Amino acid sequence: MSDEYFVFEDVDGYKRSSEYTAGGLCLIRIGCVLGSPPRYRIINKLGRGAFSTVWLARDLIESRNVALKIIQADRTSDSKEPTILQRLKAPDAEDPRVIQLLDVFAHASPNGTHQVLVMEPVHPIDFMRYSAFRPIFTREVVYQTIQGLAFIHNRGIAHGDLHPGSLGIAAPEIYQFSDVDIWSLSNHPYTLAIVHSSVDQNPDSFPPSPEFTQHPLSIRILDLGNTYIVGESSPPRCVMPITYAPPEVVFRQQALKDLHAPWDQSSDIWSLALCIHALTCSDSLFSHITSSLLHEMMHYCGEVPNTWHEFIRSNPFPRGRPEHADKLWKEREKVFALRGVEDPPGFIRLLRQMMVLDPAKHPSAAKLLCDPYFTSL
After folding, report:
1. Furthest-apart CA pair in the chain: how many Å?
2. What gap in Å lies between CA 209 and CA 213, rounded to an integer?
3. Is the pLDDT of residue 135 over 50?
4. Residue 175 — pLDDT band, cuts 50, 70, 90?
5. Mean pLDDT for the chain?
6. CATH homologous superfamily of domain 123-374?
7. Distance between CA atoms of residues 234 and 228, nearest Å
């Protein structure tokens, strides 16, 4: 079949020409075949990261569809993502809740040499931000997400870039879709997944969900390009969206003007709590106004670390009071109840364990899996 049959919309807009220069992005054409020997035929564009593009491709040897993450040329030599992903490979019988690496190779283009990571295809979980989890999903989705983080931490790795966009759902059905299937599904009109907030809702009264949502969800943690191995290297600069950044990073950036504030595995616990909140409530707990972020953190957390006291005394920030935090979370409890969350008080207790301003007081991901909130699973 000729390339002209494969017509897809660029899912994230046209690229600036400046991104396709020496050292920049790899120019990819639908239908081209990558690998040595040629193996992966490009079907469609899935999206892009800060320094990469992501494509759906057909593995001509294994007869399955895969995702190719193609790194910008001037970032290829510094990329540690293959090392991290190799460390996170799981036995075939184990579901690690972390995206799995299938292959890695180098691809030469006029812009340089690009590292190409071949991974399992996943569906972004972000769509669930726009309709609340069905109650049968909520507890299980949260548990699996914490399982994924525990798996990463158990391998000695800190993630450092957890936000809703770094979470996905395994989509095994897409492995065997034909090119024509992909073309059909990518055409207008768009299809949106609907996950109703009430188990009492008649499923025939609203459009059906895509097939993968009708099976038990299997979470995948993605975006491992900013991770590091604890004890073997120093943390890179924190690049996650500011509303998901851990307080120790935000504090050092604002109070000490330290743009390379250190972070570690305990920082991931805070960020994951905010991911869980955003996926459940369809919005971020904190505003995007950077100057008020520390203020909001103190209000929701109540207790302030000793290292913050001097800064608070010299700035117009209230110290934060536990009783005020209790009141704010009581209001959030009503929101969670409306969203169909099981056991809103237990859910809030889980989040508040994770959202402590002092990172030394964060529970480990492994400990969170034993929280009473998950007893019924």
Report:
1. 70
2. 6
3. no
4. low
5. 82
6. Transferase(Phosphotransferase) domain 1 (1.10.510.10)
7. 7
pLDDT at 198: 52
pLDDT-based confidence at residue 214 (cuts at 50, 70, 90): very low
Residue 132 has pLDDT above 90, yes or no: no
Q: Which amino acid does the sequence have at 179?
A: D
Side-chain-side CA neighbours of residue 373 (13 Å): 24
Hey, which residues does 54 pair with through a beta bridge?
47, 69
Mean pLDDT for 286-305 is 87
CB-based contacts of 212, cutoff 8 Å, min separation 6 = 123, 169, 170, 171, 172, 173, 174
The pTM for the full model equals 0.84
Q: How far is CA 345 from CA 176, 198, 276, 330, 370, in A?
A: 43, 19, 15, 8, 17
Instruction: Specify the length of the chain in residues.
Output: 377
Examine residue 208 and say whether the peptide bond preceding it is cis (omega within 30 degrees of 0). Answer: no
Helix (H, G, I), strand (E, B) or coil at 118: strand
The candidate with the shortest Cα–Cα distance to 350, out of 145, 169, 197, is 145
Residue 157 region by backbone torsions, left for phi larger than 0, else alpha for psi between -120 and 50, else beta: beta
Query: Collapsing DSSP states into helix, strand and coil, what is residue 117?
Result: strand
Q: Which residues are registered as beta bridge partners of 118? A: 68, 103
Write the pLDDT tens digit of every residue in 325-365: 999 999 999 999 988 889 999 999 999 999 999 999 999 99
118-127, 177-186, 319-328, 368-377: which is most confident: 368-377
Mention every residue, 6+ apart, whose C-beta is less than 8 A from residue 52: 25, 69, 70, 71, 72, 75, 225
Q: Which two tokens stand for residue 102?
A: 């299938």
69 labelled ligand-binding:
yes
- Count helices and strands in the chain by DSSP H and E runs: 11, 11
Assess contact for 246 and 270: CB atoms under 8 A. Answer: yes
Domain spans in the chain, listed from the N-terminal domain onward: 3-120, 123-374
Can you name the CATH fold of 3-120?
Answer: Phosphorylase Kinase; domain 1 (3.30.200)
